[in-house]
Amino acid sequence: MRNLILAAAAAAVLSLASAGAQPQENYESWAVLQPSFPSTGGGGIMIGEYRPVIVGKLCTTNFTATEPNGTVYRNVVEFDAVEAQGGTLCTNGRWRSADGSASGTTPFRVFFKNGIVRGSPE
């Protein structure tokens, strides 16, 4: 009887866990990545010259960040490149300014598959 109760409790816990699980994101539904787009950080900053490539276990690109007043900052970003859905997902982005004065992370992600590069939705 005790084993039956334990099995029922385990099944209930698994059922609750799977009920809260999110469906897997479909990276191929993301829009084709353009070299210019609004920054995920907001503030009217535009990202430009964004052309990521896969190099080993990383995705990387140099890019610009342009403030609304026209000030341009040169930067580089690196992501972890992981296999996903038959392509490569670039995730866990880390950026830094070209002059080393600033750095941070980004929630933005990139997906490569069949020669098409897509950017994560905002």
Task: Characterise the protein shown here.
The chain has 122 residues and is mainly beta. The chain has one domain. 15% of the residues lie in helices and 43% in strands. The chain is built from one helix and nine strands, in the order αβββββββββ. Strands 1, 2, 3, 4, 5, 6, 7, 8 and 9 form a nine-stranded antiparallel beta sheet that branches. Strand 4 and strand 5 (72-84) form a beta hairpin. Mean pLDDT is 86; it is low at 1-20. Residues 1-21 form the signal peptide. It comes from Phreatobacter stygius. This is DUF995 domain-containing protein. Keywords: Signal.
Determine the structural class based on helices, strands and strand pairing.
Answer: mainly beta
The arrangement of helices and strands along the chain is HEEEEEEEEE
Helix content: 10-25%
- How far the N terminus sits from the C terminus, by CA atoms, comes to 52 Å
Q: How many strands?
A: 9
Give the amount of beta strand, in percent.
Answer: 35-45%
What's the overall geometry?
globular
Structural domain count: 1
Number of helices: 1
CA gyration radius, whole angstroms: 20 Å
Keywords: Signal
Organism: Phreatobacter stygius
Protein name: DUF995 domain-containing protein
Task: Write the SSE topology.
Blueprint: H1 2-19, E1 37-38, E2 46-48, E3 53-55, E4 58-66, E5 72-84, E6 87-97, E7 103-106, E8 110-113, E9 116-119
Antiparallel strand pairs: 1-2, 2-4, 3-4, 4-5, 5-6, 6-7, 6-8, 8-9
Keywords: Signal
Organism: Phreatobacter stygius
Protein name: DUF995 domain-containing protein
